[in-house]
Every structure is written in structure tokens, then in C-alpha cells.
């Protein structure tokens, strides 16, 4: 696809072009009176997925759009840390999601497969608008606002709201702040640019309370989860020779571990942060059981390895330094598959 004067319009590598922004604004402004909008974020939603979706939904509501639903595929359970977020009243289960909306808007999903059973909404009567920041985004929407330079999908959402003339209020800002802090590791990761801090300043200026929000989202978990983390971290393994000597640290958690400690699967999302701090390893990995022989795999890198290449090679995706995939077999099988692919994912070896 090309834009005016043959300029590539919004190729994923260079972010959205003016033509893409204009098409997105037109899709929303062109909604019929009483038009129905379905917002969808990726399966197993994180703070960026939920925050960008709900923040944008609240913005559409301010714009006067009344028939709004927000949803994600899979069990409709919202992880406990997100249960105080504004806009949750708009959330419906996958089963209750409008089968034929006038407009679909997708958040933080690099490909249609991340939308699970809701992917069929992409081919419905209304156009599909995609807001995302994964370099690997497949461009699966009719209009794609994909900016790999954006620290979070909420950066794209804020820009689109601004172009629609929607002012930030505290509700929108809290959602976008949850998203921004999630994907920047609370302003610690490389993605934390001056633009990120300027956006954070705009959000904070609405009066939201960052201390309360961060405590709720990042620094609060049941005591059972604290004990579960202790057990799972106790079995972590360090492999200094892996990844051509850059080192690998990994651990796994089974469904039985969760049951013993009476914990829900989402508590394991925070585990990677306790594993990736291992100084002796560039690559960290947590393998989380989701079925008899199925595992959700989280990987992080400190800079020597492009873990998105590891993930893509194994059927998943993500960013250079944070990626994931679905693994099969035993936890050992999954780690074996990662170990085998790691040497081909070194950064600066001429192939990256
Ligand atoms: P996580 O470790 O779950 O926080 O995910 C890190 C990054 O990898 C995020 O950008 C996800 O979108 C991406 N990711 C995780 N799991 C998958 C998967 N199964 N398929 C594609 N991308 C994934
Ligand atoms: Mn995400
Ligand atoms: Mn994201």
C-alpha cells in the first residue's frame, strides 16, 4: 500500500503516516448515528492491552459514541490488579461480544491469532482499525496504526484521541498510565524516551495518583502468590554457557503449583521480573503451564539476544527484549527448543 506521492503509508517500520491517521479519524467520525463499536485487546491481557483499550473506549464515550463494548478472547476474568480500572463497565465476555459491529478496534495485538475466537470480527461488515506497537505486526486491519517506536500501544491511542479532539480526563489518563508504566517497566526500560515522560506528564496533570495506581498494579499480590514465587524461584536454573556464553536463566510453574497455593494463573505474569534480574544471564525465561502439555513462555533479554526472533522461530512474537510463545511437551522440551534457537538470535552477529 502506498500513500500520497507513492510514499509508503504507515509501513510498520516507520510508524503510521498522515494518510493512516486520517483514515482512522475518518473511520470513527464516519460511524453511523447509533453505530456500534467493538474494542478487542489481545488474549491474556496485560496492562497495555487493557489500559489502551479501556482508555480509548472512554475517549470514544466522551466523543458521544454510546454503543460500545470492550472485550478480549478467552475466559472473561480480569486479573485482580486491574479490577479497579476505569471503564471496566464496558467490558463484556467473548460470548457476549457484538457479532456484527460497525467498527472494530484492536489493541496491542501483533497478529489476528492474538485475538483468538474474536478474529472473525475482522471480516465483518464494519472496518477494522488496528492500534499497536509490535514491529512484527502483520497489518491485519483495514487501517493500521502501528508504531514500533512507540513505547506502548497507549502512545498510539493517546495520539488518535488527540487527533479526534478528545481531551484527557482522569479516567482516560489512568488507563493510559497503567498501559505506559506496564510496557516501560515503570519508566525503566530502553523505550523510556523524552516523549514517554512528556506523555506521563500530560496524564499526571489530570490529577491521577501514580503511587496508588502503581501499588495496585505492580506491588500488590496475595500472600499465597508470595509463597508460590518463593518455590518457583527456588527451582530456577542458571546456564552460563547458553546463548554463546551470554547466559540463560529459567524456571517453570505448573498448574499443580498454582493449585497448591490456591492462586490464579495471572499471578505468574509478574514472575519474569524476579527472574530477569539475574546478573549472570542475558536471557531469562519463565515457562508457565496452561494445559496438560502446553506452556505460555515469557522471555526477556538485556541486549545481547533478540528474543523476538527466538519467539517467532517457535511460533510466537513480541519485541526485541520481551517476547513470548506457546510451548508444547514438557517444560524441559520447551527450554530445549529455546536453547537450540538462541545462537541464531544473537544481536550484532551480522544476522540481526
Ligand atoms: P509476556 O512475556 O507475556 O509479557 O509477553 C512479552 C511480549 O511477547 C508481549 O509483547 C507479547 O505481546 C508477546 N507475546 C507473548 N506471548 C506471545 C504469543 N504466544 N504469541 C505472540 N506474541 C506473544
Ligand atoms: Mn501486551
Ligand atoms: Mn504493548
TrEMBL record:
**DHHA1 domain mapped to chain residues:** 267-338
Pfam families (UniProt xref): DHH (PF01368), DHHA1 (PF02272)
- Quote one Gene Ontology molecular function term: nucleic acid binding
The DDH domain, residue ranges: 36-179
Q: Mind telling me which PANTHER family this protein's record contains?
A: BIFUNCTIONAL OLIGORIBONUCLEASE AND PAP PHOSPHATASE NRNA
Q: What is this protein called?
A: Phosphoesterase RecJ domain-containing protein
Amino acid at each position: 500500500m502506498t500513500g500520497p506521492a507513492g510514499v509508503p503509508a504507515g509501513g510498520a517500520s516507520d510508524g503510521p503516516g498522515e494518510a493512516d491517521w486520517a483514515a482512522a479519524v475518518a473511520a470513527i467520525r464516519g460511524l453511523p448515528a447509533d453505530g456500534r463499536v467493538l474494542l478487542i485487546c489481545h488474549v491474556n491481557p496485560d496492562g497495555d492491552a487493557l489500559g489502551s483499550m479501556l482508555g480509548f473506549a472512554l475517549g470514544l464515550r466522551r466523543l458521544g459514541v454510546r454503543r460500545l463494548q470492550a472485550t478480549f478472547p478467552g475466559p472473561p476474568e480480569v486479573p485482580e490488579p486491574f479490577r479497579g480500572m476505569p471503564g471496566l463497565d464496558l467490558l463484556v465476555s467473548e460470548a457476549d461480544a457484538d457479532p456484527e459491529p460497525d467498527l472494530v478496534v484492536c489493541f496491542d495485538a501483533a497478529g489476528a491469532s492474538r485475538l483468538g475466537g474474536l478474529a472473525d470480527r475482522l471480516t465483518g461488515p464494519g472496518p477494522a482499525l488496528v492500534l499497536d506497537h509490535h514491529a512484527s505486526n502483520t497489518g491485519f486491519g483495514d487501517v493500521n496504526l502501528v508504531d514500533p517506536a512507540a513505547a506502548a500501544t497507549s502512545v498510539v491511542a493517546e495520539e488518535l484521541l488527540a487527533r479526534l479532539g478528545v481531551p484527557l480526563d482522569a479516567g482516560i489518563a489512568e488507563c493510559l498510565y497503567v498501559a505506559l508504566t506496564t510496557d516501560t517497566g515503570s519508566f525503566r526500560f530502553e523505550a523510556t524516551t523524552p516523549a514517554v515522560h512528556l506523555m506521563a506528564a500530560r496524564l499526571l496533570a489530570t490529577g491521577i495518583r501514580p503511587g496508588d495506581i502503581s501499588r495496585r498494579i505492580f506491588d500488590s499480590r496475595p500472600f499465597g502468590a508470595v509463597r508460590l514465587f518463593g518455590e518457583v524461584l527456588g527451582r530456577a536454573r542458571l546456564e552460563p554457557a547458553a546463548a554463546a556464553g551470554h547466559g540463560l536463566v529459567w524456571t517453570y510453574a505448573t498448574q499443580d503449583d498454582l493449585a497448591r497455593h490456591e492462586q490464579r494463573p495471572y499471578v505468574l505474569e509478574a514472575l519474569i521480573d524476579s527472574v530477569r534480574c539475574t546478573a549472570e544471564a542475558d536471557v531469562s525465561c519463565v515457562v508457565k503451564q496452561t494445559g496438560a502439555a502446553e506452556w505460555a513462555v515469557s522471555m526477556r533479554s538485556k541486549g545481547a539476544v533478540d528474543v523476538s526472533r527466538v519467539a517467532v522461530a517457535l511460533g510466537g512474537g513480541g519485541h526485541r527484549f520481551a517476547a513470548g510463545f506457546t510451548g508444547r511437551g514438557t517444560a524441559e522440551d520447551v527450554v530445549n527448543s529455546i536453547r537450540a534457537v538462541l545462537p541464531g538470535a544473537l544481536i550484532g552477529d551480522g544476522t540481526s
